[in-house]
Write a structure and sequence with these properties.
This protein is an alpha/beta fold. The chain has a domain of 160 residues: Type I PLP-dependent aspartate aminotransferase-like (Major domain) (Aspartate Aminotransferase, domain 2, 3-Layer(aba) Sandwich). Helices cover 35% and strands 16% of the residues. It is globular. The relative contact order is 0.14.
Length: 257
């Protein structure tokens, strides 16, 4: 159902920045995949955190640290419910979709791919879902294969099935194209990948704010989801990764305690 003008104005008022005008007209902001504007509730939560709850999380036994840690984990649980992930422990915070995909390539990819293995992407991918796999192929000797698209901007699923083989290890595709607006049949894409023993990475950057996500019904999958800023960090995002996948990922950072 199309929202009324009154509803639209009510939603706009929740975002203070939209009160600004450019060229004599109210701001209309569409670049949400790069930076998502924050509603008043998020802005107020950030201010409250820095004014009254600012402390290290997970690393302090004093009360203020425990309060900050509880709020941090509560945000993870909210995101789990919002994107329908199976467990809150499967929600991983990152700086954005680009970092999320790079993290998967640098951990799962390096640990589990070898020369001759294959990675499948599509011809409609954003560079964030191309370059990390190109680098991984250079590092491991894996081969990058590309699903072609039709003149209508849709994936050629018959060609995708032909690309799948015994050496396919990762399938990485966008759920909604940021350039074409194409909504890909990711459930079928995942099923076919799993049938070959491959894992799937679904770039949910353009979808998660508009449609219900069915992460709980998907296994062996990574789903980057930007624009969910509940962690007190500007530009933060999250993605969900099945726990089976993470058990096959080595750590990427070491930190002092």
């Amino acid at each position: 159902m199309k929202p009324s003008e009154q509803q639209v104005e009510q939603w706009r008022r929740e975002f203070p920045i939209l009160a600004r005008q450019f060229h004599g007209k109210p701001l209309v902001y569409l670049d949400n995949a790069a930076t998502t504007q924050k509603p008043r509730g998020v802005i107020n939560a950030l201010v409250k955190y820095y004014q009254s709850d600012n402390a290290n999380i997970h690393r302090g036994v004093y009360e203020l640290s425990q309060i900050a840690t509880a709020a941090y984990e509560a945000a993870r649980e909210k995101i789990q419910r919002f994107i329908n992930a199976a467990h809150s422990s499967e929600i991983i915070y990152t700086r954005g979709t680009t970092e999320a995909i790079n993290l998967v390539a640098a951990t799962y990819g390096r640990a589990n791919l070898k020369a001759g293995d294959e990675i499948i992407i599509s011809a409609m991918e954003h560079h964030s879902n191309i370059v990390p796999w190109q680098i991984l192929c250079q590092q491991t000797g894996a081969v990058l294969r590309v699903i072609p698209i039709s003149d209508a901007g849709e994936l050629l699923m018959d060609e995708y099935e032909k690309l799948l083989g015994a050496r396919t290890k990762i399938v990485a595709v966008v759920q909604v194209s940021n350039s074409l607006g194409t909504v890909n049949p990711v459930k079928r894409i995942i099923e076919l990948a799993h049938a070959r023993g491959a894992v799937a990475l679904i770039d949910g950057a353009q979808l998660v704010g508009h449609h219900k996500t069915m992460c709980a019904n998907w296994t062996l999958i990574f789903t980057p989801s930007p624009g969910i800023n509940c962690t007190g960090r500007p530009g933060s995002a999250c993605f969900t990764a099945n726990r089976i996948c993470w058990r096959r990922c080595p750590p990427t950072r070491a930190a002092a305690t």
